[in-house]
Amino acid sequence: MAVRTSINEKQICELCNSQAIRLLYQFDSKRIIDSKDNRIMRCQNCGLVFIYPVPPEKDIEKIYSTPKYHNLPYFDNCKAGYKDKGQILLYKKVLDEIESRIEKTKILDIGCGTGAFLDIAKKRGWESFGVDISKRACDYAKEDFNINVFNGELYEANFPDKYFNVITLWDALEHIPHTSRFLKEVHRILKDDGLLFLETINVDTLINRIGDIIYKASFRKIEYPIRMLYGPHHIYYFTPFTLKRFLEKFKFNILEMHQDEYKINKIGVSWPIQMALSIIYLFQKIVKKQTVILVLAEKNLSENIKNSPNLIKYFLHGEHLPSTFLDI
Fold first, then answer.
1. For the chain, what are the domain ranges?
2. pTM of structure
3. Measured between alpha carbons, how far is 291 from 202 in angstroms, rounded to an integer?
4. Which run of H or E residues covers position 101?
5. Which of 32, 121, 150, 269 can bridge 126 by disulfide, Cβ–Cβ 3.0-4.6 Å?
């Protein structure tokens, strides 16, 4: 899940190149670096949300390499001896869908972490590859799962053109500062008609709106609820609309898009907060504003992106796009 970052001094939208950027939040508490200059920005033209300034590369890498980071609840059940539950079940459901569409050959997981997903893929007959900037995670994936993992940036791996049939990003895209450059590289190393699967956080949710109301109603004094929604190592925050625009911009045709909830046991909060989140999750499902976006897309060689009637209906009217592979 670890992806290296670097500083970008210009406040220009990565998605639409607009300079119409406004401050959304400025938190007094520390995020990654020892600074009070922790700004959440929003493009007024396309709605993309991102942090500014991006923390220095050395500080990000330091966090991804610490035992504290790898002991987060997120990584529970992602090591040797993992059980058939939670995220592992989702991994298998996604592989079921991918395998129904494409032959089992080379699969690359970017931000692969400890390698549990790639281990499952390898056992099912895939030739598994991983990329992660965390040496600790890469060592684990190599030693415990015997996965072919590159420790470093995707660009540094120098994979050949059209090398992979499938590329996956589990909670990784939001960590990448230069999304445009990154998606170009993904497009280059993915085979023609290859598949891209990604999971990322949705910033357009009911819980985000509740946190925003609390923050503004308290005259910016109560920042904890909204600050908790902006992870300390995330660079970009997507909505279904901005994610769709990014993928189309770099010639990926969306096959399926689905919203789901971030598993409460992966967050690591107290039980009263877990209870409150459970109630909010129920309402988010009703209004179709859930915390996680999951997308399956294919590499598109045409200049014209094909949109299915269902996708157009979903984005124009906010209707829920049915899923065939994520109902677990």
1. 56-317
2. 0.84
3. 5
4. none
5. 121
